[in-house]
Amino acid sequence: MFARQAAQRLLEIRQIFRQSPQASRSFSTALNYHIDTPDNNPNIRWEFNEANKEKAKEILSHYPSNYKQSAVIPLLDLAQQQHGGWLTVSAMNEVARIIEVAPIRVYEVATFYSMFNRSKVGKYHLLVCGTTPCMIRGSREIEEALLKHLGVKRNEVTKDGLFSVGEMECMGCCVNAPMITVADYSNGSEGYTYNYYEDVTPKRVVEIVEMLRKGEKPTPGTQNPNRIKAGPEGGNKTLLSEPPAPRCRDLEAC
Ligand code: FES
C-alpha cells in the first residue's frame, strides 16, 4: 500500500516538473531531477575558461593518469565556481569528458553532495540546517522568516539575483542550534566561501541578509552575545578553578 502511494506521489511530482521546471526548485535540492530548460540543456556548449583549464590541468596532475576520475569533485567545484555557483548539465558533461567517464558517473556525484547546486542560486545562497536539533530549536521559523523577507520560495532566486534560500542537513554546529550557512558566491570565479551563523533567530537572520545586501560582512559564528564560540551560554560552568593535583603521583607507592 505504502509503495503504491509513494509511486503515485512520484508520478505527481514528475508531472509538476514537466509542466513547470521552475516549480521543481521549491522542492528539496535532494530531489534529483533534471528537466531541460533554455539555460540548462546538453546542447549548450560549456567549457572551462583559459585560467580554469590551467587549474584543471593542475588538479589532474595530482592523480595517476589511470585514475583521472578521482578528480571529479575538485573539477565539479571548479566548474561551479566558474558558472556562478551552480552546475549545468553541460558543465557536468564537460567534466565527464575530461576525466573520461560516462556522464552518469559525474551526475551521481553532483547529485549526492549538497554543496553542488544544480539550479541557479543567488550570490548569497542561504542554507538553513533542517536536521533534528536545529529543527527543535526553531529552524522552520528561521526558514519562514527568510522566505517571507525575501519574497521567494525555497530554492528560488530573488529578482535582483542576490539571494536564494535552500536547506542543508546537519552542519556540525548542533550545540549552537539553530544555524544557517551562507554560501557566498559574490566573488565569481575567484572562489567562494561558506560562513556559519549560529544561535540565529528569525530577527537576526533578516539582519544578516540586510547586512549582506549592503556589502557588509556580518561576523560568522555564534550570534548569541552571551556565548563564547561553542561554550555554555553565560560563561563556563565547569573547570572554574585550578584542578587539584593527583592524590599520588607514584602509583606503585600509593
Ligand atoms: S542539527 Fe543543525 S548543525 Fe547539527
TrEMBL record:
Binding site for [2Fe-2S] cluster: C129, C134, C170, C174
Molecular functions (GO terms): 2 iron, 2 sulfur cluster binding; metal ion binding; NADH dehydrogenase activity
Keywords in alphabetical order: 2Fe-2S, Iron, Iron-sulfur, Metal-binding
Cofactor(s) recorded in Swiss-Prot or TrEMBL: [2Fe-2S] cluster
GO biological process entries: mitochondrial electron transport, NADH to ubiquinone
Cofactor: how and how many bound: Binds 1 [2Fe-2S] cluster.
Ranges where the record places region Disordered: 214-254
InterPro entries named in the record: NuoE-like, NuoE_dom, NuoE_N, Thioredoxin-like_sf
Residue runs in coiled coils: none
Entry similarity comment: Belongs to the complex I 24 kDa subunit family.
Protein name per its UniProtKB record: NADH dehydrogenase [ubiquinone] flavoprotein 2, mitochondrial
Species: Nepenthes gracilis (Slender pitcher plant)
